[in-house]
Amino acid sequence: MSVRILGISGSPRHGATEYSVREALKAAGEVKGVETAFIGLAGKRISNCLHCDRCLEEKQGICPVFRDDVNELLPLISSAHGFIIGTPVYSMNTSGLLQNFLNRFRPIGVNMQGHNKYIRVAGGIATGGMRNGGSEMALAAINNFALVSGMTVVSGGTAAYNGASVWARNRQEPGAREDEAGMNSVRVVGRRVAVMTKILVAGYNVVQSEIPEHLLAGFGSPEEMAEFYQNFVSTSTEP
């Protein structure tokens, strides 16, 4: 059994965040049966989500409004079982670039079919110029995105708390590389995402005949799930 772990660097630069995510993916790749892929947002054309909900109305897996780089990346995102999401710390939060990108997941969240929609794992990485300069706030934003997307959030336990934090000292990749404690937390999160993803997917493969999609999504019946999503779309698209 193999699973795919996708690393996402939400930095507009090819620096500390990209290096850290790649290192986490290397650690994830140490786990047997794990494939890895990487997306760097630096230089990508990412339009702001308008929340027009045409993707919901038209049941499209990509945005029907913008034809930018995000739509080309959505199939890769849909095929992933686990995510390692990295961001530089901007004003004690994630980068605006990463937020724009995550906001564009809306077509996947509602229209995606199959167990990948529910059996997914995520872990976060934050890189900053200060050891205690907002990394936990940025990690909380990543974790909240994962939760609202129905993912299982993985930290590094006692080794990395709510995610990996890297003190890059504003020196980009060299600064990140020299932060031994930070890079250890990065690798812990990478391995944890890989292991927990394998456990969840393997477990689902065993019990899938006993757990229909509506129950996997938390609903008592297919009708209840259908009604919820119908109401969700109707509410979202009201003028």
Uncertain spans: none
Mean pLDDT: 90
Distance between the termini: 46 Å
Task: Give a count of the beta strands, DSSP E runs of length 2 or more.
Answer: 6
Structural class: alpha/beta
Which SSEs are present, and which pair or pack?
Elements: E1 3-9, H1 16-28, E2 34-40, H2 54-57, H3 69-78, E3 82-88, H4 96-103, H5 106-111, E4 121-128, H6 135-148, E5 152-153, E6 164-167, H7 172-178, H8 180-207, H9 213-216, H10 222-236
Parallel strand pairs: 1-2, 1-3, 3-4, 4-5, 4-6
Helix pairs in contact: 1-7, 1-8
Descriptive tags:
239 residues, alpha/beta, globular, 10 helices, 46% helix, 6 strands
Description of the structure:
The protein is of the alpha/beta class and 239 residues long. Helices cover 46% and strands 15% of the residues. The chain has ten helices and six strands, in the order E-H-E-H-H-E-H-H-E-H-E-E-H-H-H-H. It has helices spanning 16-28, 54-57, 69-78, 96-103, 106-111, 135-148, 172-178, 180-207, 213-216, 222-236; strands at 3-9, 34-40, 82-88, 121-128, 152-153, 164-167. Strands 1, 2, 3, 4, 5 and 6 form a six-stranded parallel sheet that branches. Strand 1 (3-9), helix 1 (16-28) and strand 2 (34-40) form a beta-alpha-beta unit. The protein is globular, with a radius of gyration of 18 Å. The relative contact order is 0.17.
